[in-house]
Amino acid sequence: MSMIRISALSLASVLLIASATAMQAAGSEADYKAAYAAAEAANKEAGSLRNQWTVTAAALAAAKKAADSGDFDQAITSSKEAEALANASIYQATSEKEAWKALEIR
After folding, report:
1. What whole-number distance in Å separates Cα of residue 68 and Cα of residue 65?
2. What's the pLDDT tens digit per position in 65-77?
3. Would residue 64 count as lying in a domain?
4. Would residue 65 count as lying in a domain?
């Protein structure tokens, strides 16, 4: 009988910890706004390098749509994706700015 109590107590503890972790993982509107601002800033920098990608704009639009519907977890995910895409476009623009010099011209 004591084994059943210990198992039930252990299960209850695991469920309590799991639900607390899930609650902490939920994104808030403030988290979304911070992630979206970072993505917009990176996209603006990519624009200044004349290398904005259309997929970045799509990810930003998806983030805004998710936030408008109250799904801040998805909005944060889409914002972070947009930031990563913008950073990749920045990397592409800066690396190719000098890489062409290494090409063999005949």
Report:
1. 5
2. 999 999 999 999 9
3. yes
4. yes
